Amino acid sequence: MSMNNQGRPSAPSETAITSERATFTGNKALAMEEPLLFEIGRMDVCGVDLDEAEDFAPALGSHARKAVPDLPALTEPETMRHYVRLSSKNYAIDAGLYPLGSCTMKHNPRLNEKMARLPGFGDVHPLQPLSTVTGAVELIGELAHWLVTMTGMSAVAMSPKAGAHGELCGMMAIKAAHQAAGRDPKIVLVPESAHGTNPATAALLGYKVVSIEAREDGTVDPAAVKARIKEHEGDIAGIMLTNPNTCGLFERDIIAIAEAIHAADGYFYCDGANFNAIVGKARPGDLGVDAMHINLHKTFSTPHGGGGPGAGPVVLSERLAPFAPLPFLRKGEGGIEWVETDAELKDGEQPFGRMTAFHGQMGMYVRALAYMKSHGADGLKQASEDAVLNANYVRVGLQDLMSLPFGQRWCMHEVLFDDSFLKETGVTTLDFAKAMIDEGYHPMTMYFPLVVHGAMLIEPTESESRSSLDLFIATMRDLVMSAQKGETDRFKGAPFHAPRGRLDETRAARNPVLKWERPAATAVQPQAAE
């Protein structure tokens, strides 16, 4: 796959301060400085009062700790204040528009949170006896039903934890299907507009990745797919294609591509990260897709980030359904049956193994089903339509000042610009994104997809009102005009108003500081355990 050859500035710029007036605490009103827990806590005391332990015989033997834990001691108010102060430094979807392309950072209705915290959902434990979680199992079964219905597929594996994990599940099912048929193809086709996890997943499973270039309009040409199939005749395992793709465009020839792959005895894996654009409008199963992951934490609310919980169920076509991993749910005469082991399998069921120890992320399941049921079929369709409408509203509002790499054509749920409009301004794509932070916006996705130089990918989602989009568009226009007028001081060294200024990102990546070391002058030696 082609690589973007535009580097990122590695030298930090001087950051201007918003006020010359110093304060005794270092705080500036509600913009509070907050040290690390290890810097504000004491190591020689405990933050709570504990009774002296009675004599006991430890059972850990040589594994018993030789010294007290090197942990800071804080009271409950100190701990709460620490995390609340840190949280105020974060940007969040509840604070403003979050334009990350290909990430679907949409509003998470509070009804979903209320449902996820209900007893029996919020406190369920994976090691509980199955007889005590029948309600949770029923909810998983109903969610699975609607996922299969919305996608037009035959089965769904619920256990994958997120998108990349779902990709692995789908591709493992494809590999198992080939093996069951006595085949061992080595090639997986991946368009250059695909998510980076696609080729990584294929390579992890031992496949050779063969790239397919995008045509001038940003989509995949069936002729290019057929040419690759002919080059590697008899050795095509399948294709991994994103639709809508990461250029924000619908692959209009997807059915022809699927037919070509199937004619070569391959399988069609569709990356479902952008499903939010087509829910209720198009069913992947009708388009020839054999496997597709669904990011519940994106399409069906709960914006992701910070390594938090996710869920990536994988829907499977009739040809791949027998290879769904354990554990899975099966409709039986007495209702939903939980299939946990090989001993419980019926004829035709050939799971490739298991993806994870436990079935999935219960909180994500509850939130997703609450989102579906509160919207209904018509509401989910409208959400998709509104997401596409909002993206095109942004496109039209900016297309006279910002450059569109594939021309002024309709996009789907996200609009892709490139940095051509910054040429000869002295302002880089990174400078522009950093200046957005000063205006109170999280930057859009930058330098991705790689098929476009200096990419700026914006996805407003359906959550934003017209007034919200109007302010965002006006802000972007002001930034563009400022750059083109040569006002580089606004961009070089930005952000100026964030809690921290511009970082040397290259140096941070090459020489990360992974562990905090207490300064020697203030070090407190932990007392040895008696």
Describe the structure.
Residues 383-485 form the Glycine dehydrogenase C-terminal domain. Its EC number is 1.4.4.2. One of its GO terms (cellular component) is glycine cleavage complex. This protein is an alpha/beta fold and 530 residues long. It folds into three domains: 28-44 and 64-89 and 504-530, no CATH class; 113-369, Type I PLP-dependent aspartate aminotransferase-like (Major domain) (Aspartate Aminotransferase, domain 2), CATH 3.40.640; 378-503, Aspartate Aminotransferase, domain 1 (Alpha-Beta Complex), CATH 3.90.1150. 31% of the residues lie in helices and 9% in strands. It has helices spanning 37-40, 76-87, 110-116, 134-151, 163-180, 197-204, 222-231, 254-263, 296-299, 362-398, 429-438, 466-484, 505-510; strands spanning 155-157, 187-191, 208-212, 236-242, 267-271, 291-293, 314-316, 328-332, 335-339, 415-417, 445-446, 456-458. β8 and β9 (335-339) form a beta hairpin. α7 runs parallel beside α8 (254-263). Mean pLDDT is 90; it is low at 1-18.
Helix and strand arrangement:
Blueprint (H helix, E strand, L loop, with lengths): L36 H4 L35 H12 L22 H7 L17 H18 L3 E3 L5 H18 L6 E5 L5 H8 L3 E5 L9 H10 L4 E7 L11 H10 L3 E5 L19 E3 L2 H4 L14 E3 L11 E5 L2 E5 L22 H37 L16 E3 L11 H10 L6 E2 L9 E3 L7 H19 L20 H6 L20
Parallel strand pairs: 2-3, 2-4, 4-5, 5-6
Antiparallel strand pairs: 1-7, 6-7, 8-9, 10-12, 11-12
Helix pairs in contact: 3-10, 4-10, 5-6, 7-8, 10-12
Keywords: Oxidoreductase, Pyridoxal phosphate
Protein name: glycine dehydrogenase (aminomethyl-transferring)
Catalytic activity: N(6)-[(R)-lipoyl]-L-lysyl-[glycine-cleavage complex H protein] + glycine + H(+) = N(6)-[(R)-S(8)-aminomethyldihydrolipoyl]-L-lysyl-[glycine-cleavage complex H protein] + CO2
